Amino acid sequence: MNQPIIELKGVTKSFGPVNVLKGVDFKAYEGKVTALVGDNGAGKSTLIKGLAGVQPYDGGQVLFGGEPVHLHHPKDAAKHGIEVVYQDLALCDNLDIVQNMFLGREETRVGTFEEGRMEVEAAAALQTLSVKTVKSLRQKVASLSGGQRQTVAIARAVVKQAKVVILDEPTAALGVAQTAQVLSLVRRLADHGVAVIIISHNLQDVFKVADDISVLYLGSMTARIATADTNPNDVVGYITGTKTMEVAS
Amino acid sequence: MSADIDNPVAAEAARHSNAESLLGKGMEGGVGDHFRAYVSRVKGGEMGALPAIGGLIVLFIIFAVAHDAFLSERNMANLLTQAAPLVMLGMALVFVLLLGEIDLSAGVTFGVTMAVFVRLTQPDGLSWPVAMLIALGLGAFIGAFIGFFVARVGIPSFVVTLGMFLGLQGVLLIIIGDAGAYRLIPEPVKALQNANLPVVGGWIMLVVVLALLVAVALWDRRRRAAAGAPNPPVSIMIAKLAGIAIVGCAGVYFLSQDRGTATLAIAGVPIVVPMVLGLAMVGTFLLDRTRYGRYLYAIGANKEAARRAGINVTMVKWTAFVICSSTAVLAGVFYVSRVGSADAGMGREIVLSGVAAAVVGGVSLFGGRGRLVHAVIGALVIATIENGLGLLGLPAGATLAVSGGVLILAATVDALARRRSAGGS
After folding, report:
1. Edge-to-edge strands of the sheet including A67-68?
2. What is the CATH number of the domain that holds A35?
3. To the nearest whole angstrom, how far is the Cα of B375 from the nearest Cα of chain A?
4. Average pLDDT over residues B15-24
5. Between A94, A113, A139, which is nearest B289 by CB?
6. Taking all residues of chain A, what is their mean pLDDT, rounded to a whole number?
7. Do B384 and B78 form a contact (C-beta atoms < 8 A)?
8. Both B165 and B214 in a single domain?
9. Is residue B187 located within the same domain as residue B208?
10. How confident is the model at residue A200 (pLDDT cuts 50, 70, 90)?
11. Average predicted confidence (pLDDT) for chain B
12. Which residues in chain A have their CB less than 8 angstroms from residue B284's CB?
């Protein structure tokens, strides 16, 4: 369990003259929820886009299960079982739950859809997440509530047995009850052995669900700490840069 | 209890029944459940072709009351051939409308390709199948050209195709030249819109279509069962197929009656009907059951989501324009077959009727919603208005005005349905 499934070593990324990531180290473990926090512009999104293969890093090393890997394309990330659930929920309103969960990786035989198989697998994925609030798998996503949509987006990541799931602000647009629902979903995801990386501005949520907290400040990792060993005040200090800690490696 | 868990089959069964009790797959339940689900979908704004079907029925009643000849066998057969180019054009446009794009040049595309076809098949010219292949190739090329600028360069399709609309009109004028018009020579192409299947052929067509529908439905059920997914009640399948069979039988029977003059007997289903049906079935199969079709819908609803899901958005868009233009060529074939000549104004006006047909039938201009059958029904609505008002001796101006009103009405229904389905959550 000491071997992180994802480890970043000194990754850098710059856009023109702006150094967004200045040699960041980061680790995520199977079965753990790792929170990535930081102020706007700290480089959270850039860090995630590198992991997703959408925007490759300029320098540094990415280790997956201890092996160096190159993530230059979303397909590279998908190949390693890295799935990203984006903030603005990449769902299509006109498609139903099953169609959304399998978008881009539909099960086909002789070029035509295996609708039945996809339905069964979608049901199984929602089952592992203990989702019970969905009336029918064949309802259009347009008719779902915000929490249900987030659930579908997360289940989409699970349906292909992802090893690493990255959630970008999963609770930003949700009400209190739905937030609780999604957070418990995140917890269950980790309990199934998935390494979960969650980006959030909401420290209350972070403390509720995360095992570890990593703090980015202006492109550098300024703190990495177990949730149990810290408190929201300290984390706010790290985020705003008024407080620093020696990052143990 | 431990015995149950030790037995893997029982455990699996228990897990399975548990899964079903928690999560509806949307297919189980009785006829009543499915009917209620359908009603709630319609109430939620997914009306599909219902408004257009309702409109078509109302139009039929109005015209049947207003003019004796409207429901005559001859006029109904005439209506079908009249509608054929519009139906094809509407179906062509569905492929780009689903993406939230438009092709204003689809009409002049068929104009140009048909001008080429008709000129190539003048006496001493090429054989008609070769000329037809050239016309189709030219249509595909025009589509690829448009698709390049829309999908690769990123220019709004409205602008690109408006440019093509103007440019191709010029090309059409040049091809037709001073002659003003060229007569269509090849008999087989003329026959498309002017000949009928033998009476028995109409029945064979119906049987083939029904057999295909039954085969696909049974194939679906077998695949679902093999995957362990529930099937909807078999009675629903039978009811749907029976409905289609009844309408089909009535139509074929009606068209099998003699509608000729005292000296010349005419009977049978017009040849365009099986052609349009066949193409509609192939296209529907593509849209409903293949990745390509699914991706058209996905891109139309949320381009970014499609891109993140690994879909090659550029390629799908590009090819959609190729399909649209190529299908538009077929609309042109039906058009010249009916008119009997190629002239310099071909396709200029019909394209807007084609867009209207798709929208009236329930295809959304905003992308992501619509089916080929919607374009078919919408085209029948527009054609019925033209046909009926023509019978009543109203001037062409009245036809245009009414068609325009119907279009705005349909677009209003579309916008309201969108608002309802968006605000329904």
Report:
1. A18-28, A6-15, A59-64, A67-68
2. 3.40.50.300
3. 18
4. 47
5. A113
6. 86
7. no
8. no
9. no
10. confident
11. 87
12. none
